[in-house]
């Protein structure tokens, strides 16, 4: 193979050789054919050892997923929105995010943390890689990467809080419009909006919006455990919305989570899914409801290394 490398001058008269392909270390490293993959399930550093050249490769494919949101804080509350989801999967080796020599900080967003029972908790956080930020999922009625579902008789939050093109997520569903204790709306997901909660007394919560399916080949072998399974066996799913809450003594009528999202009460968004947490269901006396936490985010960087 011809040597396409060249030297650049460093400080103090030193030099280093720029070789044709990107090389880096950090995260969980795997290879898939001519590509190297770095997956970060927690915050860390991608150390770029060589930024490459146009003759080989000089850019990254990226997958940046924000933390899933925190659901509504009462039993007819809205499901949480899925974390914002941004990627350039499938870009040519020289058409993605430009590789830059040195340490690149990777921030992986936490999922919204729900209390064991009742109110409280904390919202999720954003994920960031260089110039790419993916917004955390929205809490009930709140805007976010995908919006949180509305509490009973309330609208859902808007998605794509970062104002990106293409959008990082979708709107949360509205809470049930009429009646005593109608169901909460489902949180929005990357793939679709959340559903409206059912009206009337004891109305079920709305299902969360579906997340996006990503082919497992992006993550490299072995088969990844990131995200969740879904309708396509070759894909993993991310950034789904959580189900809306419901008033339902003696039964669980909270909405189901979207693919890649948190589900009913006591079903959190899975780790690395960016899924919104499912809102709680009132199911006992005295009041006893269990909102669920959102799933943590994920950052994956991929590039041609040979």
Model description:
The protein has about 300 residues and is mainly β. About 0% of the residues lie in helices and about 25% in strands. It is built from no helices and 17 strands. The protein has strands at about 5-10, 15-20, 20-25, 30, 35-40, 45-50, 60-65, 85, 95-100, 100-105, 125-130, 130-135, 210-215, 235-240, 245, 280, 300-305. The strands form five sheets. Strands 4, 5, 7, 8, 9 and 17 form a six-stranded antiparallel β-sheet that branches.
What proportion strand? Answer: 15-25%
**SSE pattern, N- to C-terminal:** EEEEEEEEEEEEEEEEE
How many runs of DSSP E, i.e. beta strands?
Answer: 17
- Assign a percent range to the helix content: under 10%
The number of distinct helices, counting runs of at least 4 residues, comes to: 0
Q: What is the 3D form?
A: elongated
Structural class: mainly beta
Largest sheet geometry: 6 strands, antiparallel
Uncertain regions: pLDDT < 50 for 5+ in a row?
A: 9-13
State the end-to-end CA separation: 11 Å
CA radius of gyration is 21 Å
What is the typical, i.e. mean, pLDDT? 87
